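Notes from the 1:1 (GR / supervisor)

We went over the backlog. Supervisor wanted to see one worked example end to end before approving the batch request, so GR pasted a single chain during the call. The sequence is below; no edits were made to it. Supervisor asked that the structure be written out right there so they could see what the output format looks like.
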Amino acid sequence: WLASADYPGGLDVLRVGLVAADGVLAPPSEREARTLPVGARVVSHALGTTVLERNLWIAICVARRLGLDDDAIAGAVADVRPGSLRGEVRMLGEATLVLDCYNANPLSLGEALDDLGRCTGRRAAVIGEMLELGNATFAAHREMGARLAGVGVDRALFVGASATAFADGFGDAGGDR
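Structure output shown during the call:
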């Protein structure tokens, strides 16, 4: 919707994203995980989800457009950490845990499932109910259950009042109940 919006004259519109497209400023697709460019430098960051990395990329692009110094931006990028339980990556022995415990929606949960699908090794998911979806609640949970089956997990646990809808979508899409 924003891409086709009619903006008033004189407005500086900057289109950014993690994937290159016509008119979209994106970082190089072939880059190390958890890195983003800041001017001529490549800076490591501690954010473990695509959603948070995209938000950081937007912040970098806006800061540069506003004329902030690349060294200052790079320092801030290196220091940024996710909020508590918002895309935190923790190690438990050899297992990587991504703690993303907030009131999700189908878009954010779908992106989290895509992230899980890109992980190697055994994968498991514990997914709680998405709230405040109104009449779309049942269908959205079934859809996300099916999407989880599509990424291929070894184990899944669905929690909350919509657990059955998650499980139905998961099983119907070939997930092992």
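Supervisor's comment: The beta strands are 35-38, 41-44, 86-92, 95-100, 124-128, 155-159.
Batch request approved.
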